[in-house]
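Good morning N.,

You mentioned wanting to compare the apo and holo forms, so I went ahead and generated the holo version with zinc ion. This is what I fed in:
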Amino acid sequence: MGQSNNNPLSIAKKMGHEIHRDNSGNQTIMIDVKDTEALVCLNCGSEDFSQVINLRKLSALHPKNPTKQDNITAAQRGFVCIKCGTGNKIGTIAEYKSLHKKDE
Ligand SMILES: [Zn+2]
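and this is what came out, ligand included:
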């Protein structure tokens, strides 16, 4: 909590860059933010998302637990809009506009 100013992504954003990781999670490349397209919540148009994780505990008493200590792992579940709470409905601004043009 309260450490968002120190996270590398927000620092990169201040410099106008995003950090992207490959599947191994090791390599980072710098991409000019101008070369990217904003993705928004298809429900409300917000650009701000929060990461959703599920936490799972492996009990210290479980026979398959080699550490004999409680182990907590996090499983990435996707993204949720922090404005309206809609999960994993993410698209381009053009997609958002075409979706919301239909209310006539
Ligand atoms: Zn939303």
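Helices lie at 8-14, 93-99.

Happy to go through it together on a call whenever suits you.

Best,
F.
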